[in-house]
Amino acid sequence: MTTSSTLPTPSNPGPFGHKQRKNFFFPEGKTEFNHGSYGTFTRSVKENMMKWHDRAEQNPDRWVRLELKPALRKVRSQLAEFMNCDTDELALVQNTTTGVNTVLRSLKFLPGDRILQLSTGYISIVKTAQYIHDTHENVEIVEVPVVMPMSDQEIVFSVEKAVQDHIAKKDGSRIRLAIIDWISSMPAIVHPVKPLIDMLQSYGIQVLIDGAHVIGQLPIDLKFLNADFFITNCHKWLYSVRGSAVLYVPKRYQNMIHPTAIQGNYQGGFELEFSWKGTMDYSTMLSIEGALEFRKQYGEKAIMNYNHKLAVQGGKIMAEILGTNVLSPYEHQVGYMFNVRLPIKNINHPKIQTEDYLVRHLLDKYNLFSPSFMHGGCFWTRVSSQIYLELDDFVHLGNVWKEVIDELNAETEY
Ligand SMILES: Cc1ncc(COP(=O)(O)O)c(C=O)c1O
């Protein structure tokens, strides 16, 4: 990712920064630092969603019986162009959790099958794999410990070593599937997915890429990537409404993949099965159209450069204020989110052991939030950049976290 200078300056304010606030819904005084958790959408995207919503209400039969399927197909074809794959390889689903469940609960795991995951995997996905373990005979999880900072080569090496160690056991089991985050949640790290996919497939292992954070954050070329399965949330970084994600299943696997909720279109083929999810509101998924339109006026490169550069510089600013460091020294492992260390002296402080304390404290006292977590024996916060933020926002967040941590450290000393 290039980092051309796109941050606003007085002489060259550019299209992004605080002037973008008017396109979003934040009230005066609310600055959003956690876009990564739930995303948010623009006013124009809401209008687009309401267009679909109104159309459904004006004539429910015409909508469901005649118009819905072509409308979903159009959005899928726009996404296919965006991610370089065939329209027929894409299915719209509600979220990444559903997409991963769709794949894991469709595949027929046999006794002796193993599922490989990284220790940094997202909790819902880890639990879904655990569910497969719990409901199948002799299906186990192989977890690869990942403690950042690690270079891309070290990550690939660790995963390959886990595969080789497993093979060396010669216990009759085989790693059937690997689930790899493209961008992990906490810590937020961009992983070397292409080398991981190539390496894992060379051992005959299928690869499911959890790309929950990817669309809208990194360029995607699914033909080049050649993953066996890929899922990404559009409601995080693409700016569509929550409840919109897209699952990629290449044609070679489509006859074995079915929606998590089976309905009347069962066995009607991949497109038909995934076009009807039972009676519900499809306007959130269709709002992807509005999100793509909003982005087009600036171009993907401009959005990506701005957010990446803001994340890299924001991380440096906050680390300086806190007297600490960002987790990854490699800029290419940073997308739009960075992890900065919080200088807590006592990591067993009861208040940081219950996340609710910090959630309430940050929201109630400061009207802002960035999630915190333990990794590698240290305490970190994950911060999201976004086109409505500027560098001085990170100065503010850094000062708030400094005050919070200073207070906790004073309590510890007392
Ligand atoms: C890496 C990763 N995978 C999966 C998910 C689950 O996404 P959703 O809650 O939209 O299903 C998240 C959510 O933040 C995530 O960060």
From TrEMBL:
Residue stretches making up the Aminotransferase class V domain: 67-341
TM segment ranges: none
Pfam families given in the database record: Aminotran_5
SUPFAM superfamilies the UniProt entry points to: PLP-dependent transferases
Sorted UniProt keywords: Pyridoxal phosphate
InterPro entries: Aminotrans_V_dom, PyrdxlP-dep_Trfase, PyrdxlP-dep_Trfase_major, PyrdxlP-dep_Trfase_small
Region (Disordered): 1-20
PANTHER family with a match to the protein in the record: HERCYNYLCYSTEINE SULFOXIDE LYASE, L-CYSTEINE DESULFHYDRASE
UniProt protein name: Aminotransferase class V domain-containing protein
